[in-house]
Write a structure and sequence with these properties.
There is one protein chain. By secondary structure, this protein is an all-alpha fold. Helices cover 76% and strands 0% of the residues. Helix 3 runs antiparallel to helix 4 (54-69), helix 4 packs antiparallel against helix 5 and helix 6 runs antiparallel to helix 7 (123-141). The radius of gyration is 15 Å and the shape is globular. InterPro entries: TPR-like_helical_dom_sf. This is TPR-like protein.
Length: 143
């Protein structure tokens, strides 16, 4: 992505635009629809990080939720969608302080970890994400 290389916000906007144009070309049941939803959501999350518009973060969470719904238990990419959604919810908790977001993030991180047995290449990421969310909750609430 041009944005990552040069910090060009126009490139990020253009990426989001193209993700939005591509999405209707992959109707329900299309095998790439969950991936497309996650890509759009990740780009919206990145734009939120750069510009701070809460609508981008809310949109990212909604797209991650839909992607997760399209990846039922047993789907090989379900753990990725769980982690993506959980990370966005954690970010929203940091911005708005709603404990429900953090609790939901922890729940999704736990499920993602269960889907990644020892030796899974993404297990360390899930462990780290869960540990960070639990640490945040402990600092906030002491539990």
């Amino acid at each position: 992505m041009r944005f990552k290389q040069r910090g060009d916000g126009r490139g990020l906007d253009e990426a989001i635009l193209h993700h939005r144009v591509a999405l209707p070309l992959m109707p329900e049941g299309h095998p790439n629809r969950p991936s497309s939803l996650n890509n759009l959501a990740n780009a919206l999350s990145r734009r939120f990080q750069e510009r701070g518009d809460g609508k981008d973060l809310d949109g990212a969470i909604e797209h991650h939720r839909v992607a997760l719904q399209l990846q039922p238990p047993g789907h090989p990419d379900r753990s990725i969608s769980l982690n993506n959604l959980a990370s966005a919810l954690s970010r929203r908790f940091q911005e708005r302080g709603d404990g429900k977001d953090l609790d939901e993030a922890i729940e999704h991180h736990r499920v993602a970890l269960q889907l990644q047995p020892p030796g899974h290449p993404d297990r360390s990421i899930s462990l780290n994400n869960l540990a960070s969310a639990l640490w945040t909750r402990f600092r906030q609430r002491g539990d």
